[in-house]
Amino acid sequence: FGLFWLRMPYNEQTLKDRASFIYFMMIFWPLDVCFVAILSFLVERRIIDKERESRSFRVSSYYLAKCVSETPLKIILPTISYTLVYWLGSLNRNFFIFLGMLAFFLMVVLVAESIGLLL
């Protein structure tokens, strides 16, 4: 994806390109994480139902364990992708703006995972 926005000049003519980059990144990773969460629950549903019938654990403990165990992976992969594409596209050379956008991006990804598990 970094090749699509490779070395964009920092001027007003590339404003739409920058907006498309932000839109793409804010849609691609959250939707990917959300659908993976939905599909993983469908695969694990039979096991969850069996464990609930035997009263081994509650749904809340499954939800918490799932979120905690998958959070590192859900943070590392989007961070690597976002970092590469951000600097390839030359969005903004200010490191603090990059960190702010990365933090917001990761919050959106984690919320999307939670919504996927909730659904």
Could you please describe the fold and organization of this structure?
Helix content is 79%, strand content 0%. It is mainly alpha-helical and 119 residues long. Helix 1 runs antiparallel to helix 2 and helix 2 (59-89) runs antiparallel to helix 3.
Order of helices and strands: HHH
The tally of beta strands, per DSSP, is 0
Strand content: under 5%
| Biggest sheet descriptor | none
Summarize the structure in short.
With 119 residues, this protein is mainly α. The protein has three helices and no strands.
Task: Provide keyphrases for this structure.
119 residues, mainly alpha, 0% strand
Please render the helix and strand layout as text.
Layout lengths: L14 H39 L5 H31 L5 H24 L1
Helix pairs in contact: 1-2, 1-3, 2-3
